[in-house]
Amino acid sequence: xxxxxxxxxxxxxxxxxxxxxxxxxxxxxxxxxxxxxxxxxxxxxxxxxxxxxxxxxxxxxxxxxxxxxxxxxxxxxxxxxxxxxxxxxxxxxxxxxxxxxxx
Length: 103
Prior knowledge:
This protein has 103 residues and is an all-alpha fold. The protein has helices at 3-16, 23-45, 59-80, 84-99.
């Protein structure tokens, strides 16, 4: 799977939920997913600002939430007309050069 495939999936989902051009709805989706990732991290590691008692989570659930977060970031980028694959490639090259990284 390529990043472009995720972009296409995100665009299709935003059409399905009739929310493709609302940048604030897209940002709200990212914020919501960050909250869910945080909650699951607190549960998995039994630490953080709010330690949950009685509610258990596992690493699989946390992985799923991180996937949701990534998809929401692509949704926001789509709404804003940003090509994340292009941006990530450029960031990759800048960081490799800046830190003289051999990969």
